[in-house]
């Protein structure tokens, strides 16, 4: 059995908001080129399968009919609908918008089905992770919410509990909203403080509603948070709440826009720290969910020196063939990356030296703004889950 499956079709590059838009398909193109240059598709533990567009029936599980009709009109007549986020600066119209966005959803949902049925242990869709899309509106470069659709499919197939871990610099608001009152789904988002970054949400006191109170978890970090601090924040919250939830499946979003070179956020989380978090999420899946893990892409706008490195690493991690820290990147890939982007690409995959981070169990500093942010989340949500915010 293949341990991992990567959903990919060249048509995913057609999700293209046009020249000058941050979400350039170049980031996916260079990612797939690096994956091939590293020989990952030849691994016996990885298979690559086509991503087909999701049906309207699948899309209706997380989006309403009026919105689907608006996207269809936008795809053909290029008719803006600003009330539904279509034709805005963030989400300009382009021909075929419906099909290309539906393909992102189809890739993630098909992987979720394969993971649940035991065909694979892990699924990866680097073109997925469109976590801002709302039930009735596009938002933040996201037309359809593949992450929410994949989680809903898992529930429909019989999963009792799903944990969603979002490591994007931006709050995973669309996924959180979809399951705000559903106690079966734990949503955990580690992101830059919404007072300083789109979408302006995701505060420690946002914990879900009704029977789901305590199943929305938000770690809202100050601008400038660096890799060691970010890993400390992830360590302080994510494992404890995910373990308490006891998920049947883990779905994770690995937007890599928390990097210091990213033009759209103000965190400073390097490639090495992001790769470390991938390892942690993978380990949690094996510890808690029988290995059932669906990993998605997301944001990431440093299209040469960050996105391909982080997502190629994610694919390799899922295939149980992790890439060596600090390894030289293939010369042929670097040449293509330079030609395509006119940006000098990185020479190595991060640093060979591990990130020196301090575990939360070693104590926290109330004078440190990152520690204060973390403790605010722990105090808001841990008691609702029967956990002690002051101790591991």
UniProtKB/TrEMBL annotation:
One Pfam match: Hist_deacetyl
Transmembrane segments: none
Keyword annotations from UniProtKB, A to Z: Acetoin catabolism
Molecular-function GO term, any one: histone deacetylase activity
Pathway: Ketone degradation; acetoin degradation
Domain of life from the UniProt record: Bacteria
CDD domains the record matches: HDAC_AcuC_like
Annotated Histone deacetylase domain residues: 21-316
Biological processes, Gene Ontology terms: acetoin catabolic process; epigenetic regulation of gene expression
Similarity comment text for this entry: Belongs to the histone deacetylase family.
Name of the protein in its database record: Acetoin utilization protein AcuC
Organism of derivation: Myceligenerans xiligouense
């Amino acid at each position: 059995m293949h341990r991992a499956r990567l959903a990919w079709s060249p048509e995913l590059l057609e999700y293209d908001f046009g020249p000058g838009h941050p979400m350039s398909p170049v980031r996916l193109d260079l990612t797939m080129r690096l994956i091939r240059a590293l020989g990952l598709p030849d691994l016996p533990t990885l298979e690559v399968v086509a991503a087909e567009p999701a049906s309207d029936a699948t899309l209706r599980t997380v989006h309403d009919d009026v919105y689907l009709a608006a996207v269809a009109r936008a795809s053909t007549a290029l008719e803006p609908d600003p009330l539904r986020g279509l034709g805005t600066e963030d989400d300009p119209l382009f021909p075929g918008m419906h099909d290309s966005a539906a393909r992102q959803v189809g890739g993630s949902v098909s992987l979720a089905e394969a993971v649940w049925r035991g065909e694979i242990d892990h699924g990866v869709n680097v073109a997925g992770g469109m976590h801002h899309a709302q039930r009735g509106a596009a938002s933040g470069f996201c037309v359809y919410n593949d992450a929410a659709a994949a989680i809903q499919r898992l529930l429909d197939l019989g999963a009792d509990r799903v944990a969603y871990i979002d490591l994007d610099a931006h709050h995973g608001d669309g996924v959180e909203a979809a399951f705000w009152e559903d106690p079966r789904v734990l949503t955990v988002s580690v992101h830059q403080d919404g007072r300083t970054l789109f979408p302006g949400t995701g505060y420690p006191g946002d914990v879900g509603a009704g029977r789901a109170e305590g199943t929305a978890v938000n770690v809202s970090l100050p601008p400038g948070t660096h890799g060691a601090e970010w890993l400390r924040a992830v360590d302080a919250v994510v494992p404890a709440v995910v373990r308490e939830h006891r998920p049947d499946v883990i779905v994770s979003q690995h937007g890599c826009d928390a990097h210091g070179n990213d033009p759209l956020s103000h965190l400073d989380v390097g490639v090495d720290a992001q790769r470390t978090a991938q390892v942690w999420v993978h380990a949690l899946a094996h510890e808690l969910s029988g290995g059932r893990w669906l990993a998605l892409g997301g944001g990431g706008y440093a299209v040469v020196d960050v996105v391909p490195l982080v997502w190629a690493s994610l694919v390799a991690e899922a295939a149980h063939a992790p890439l060596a820290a600090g390894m030289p990147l293939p010369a042929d890939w670097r040449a293509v990356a330079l030609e395509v982007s006119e940006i000098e690409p990185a020479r190595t995959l991060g640093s060979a030296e591990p990130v020196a981070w301090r575990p939360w169990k070693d104590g926290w500093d109330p004078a440190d703004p990152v520690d204060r942010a973390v403790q605010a989340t722990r105090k808001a949500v841990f008691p609702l889950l029967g956990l002690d915010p002051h101790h591991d």
